[in-house]
Amino acid sequence: MRTLWHIAKKDLLQVIKDKHSLILLLLVPLLLISIMGSAFGSAFSNNASVEFMVAVNNQDSGRVGDTIVKTLQGTNSSFKLNVKGYSTSQQVLQQVKDEKAVAGIIIPMGASQKLQDAASKGQTPNNVIQFYTRPNSRDERSTFTQQLVTGVINRQIDALYAGSAAVQQVQAVCQQPANTCNYATIKPEAISKTVGEASQTSKNISLVQMLTTGSAPRSNNFDQLLPGFAVLFALFGLNSAASTILQEKEEGTFRRLLIAPVPRYALLGGKLIAQFLLTLLQLSILFTIGYYVFKLNIGSWQAIALLLVSTSFATTGLGMLLVSIVKSRRQLTPIVTLTTLVTSAIGGSWWPLWSEPQWMQQIARIGITAWAIDGLNGVMIFGKGFSDVQFNILGLLGYGLICFFLALRLFRFQEQSA
């Protein structure tokens, strides 16, 4: 056991001597996290409201055009529409072409009358409103705007059909033999309008009582970004540690140590401890700075500390396994880079893990990142405690142990001679 600690101490002293590498180990992640956090603003915040512009040309003098504009100007928890009116349709099209407006809406003259005429005849009108977006646009903002406009039109049609049905019913009653009506006093347009407006009037009746239970999710854009990039750079740090091991192997250091009475597990175990402590130090400093500078919602410090320890152990174990598989330093960099980027991409380092399809979330469990990010997000964003993330902690510790034992079995302490 003493030999194991001596090897770990030797490796740590070598790393500490290279002060420039230590600074970069912390400076690069912090710089990237700061840039990403500033660029995305509060994109991950549950209080965020996306603001965008919609260009409108309302040529209609009736109820339809007025209702569409008022609906677009209403507030929404996710989107805030800046509705700008233009006098010509060409101005609206130009705003969309210049990408100043997410969508352009043209309400032609007589749109309300067109709906009224169609309803009185029992017909369904087509192409009443012109809605413009850029080609091949899949922007959620334009989809949301289109849904608002479509909803207004559908409600208007329902109201007009209700009014038309009322007129037909009045006329049917008047035609009964025992009834006497003065047809001059029956004004179909007035009846249709009154009934239609009444059908759209909100009574502010709430039949469902909205209640909440549990803890409300708390989110800060850095609550998602910092854990993701911290784990990402912890994995990238494996390249340096693994490269050092391969260099010692190529230079014959391991071969000379095998002559001494040193257990094989102590050679890799000592290096695992050194890299584990270095990774844990890196993660701890990043989260501490994040707490004081970026105002992270840490939640349970106990759960976070155990997640960082288990993540560091799993990361180091994976590094030992990669060292045992590759044969040279030339092979190492592309393998570490590929492993890091793929597991980080699907594991939640770059975007929320819960936003991915279910099948991708399951595949992501192959890597370390998903286990770590799922636990960290659970504690920091969803207010979970130790008991809620203990499965993640145990999974990471088990991951590290499996990788280390596989590394002991596969690692060649000296190259076989031909």
UniProtKB/TrEMBL annotation:
Transmembrane segments: 225-246, 272-294, 300-323, 335-353, 389-411
Record has Hydrolase as a keyword: no
Domain ABC transmembrane type-2 stretches: 189-414
Localisation per UniProt entry: Cell membrane
Record keywords: Cell membrane, Membrane, Transmembrane, Transmembrane helix, Transport
Chief localisation class: membrane
Keyword Cell membrane: yes
PANTHER family according to UniProt: MEMBRANE COMPONENT OF ABC TRANSPORTER YHHJ-RELATED, MULTIDRUG ABC TRANSPORTER PERMEASE YBHS-RELATED
Descriptive protein name: ABC-2 type transporter
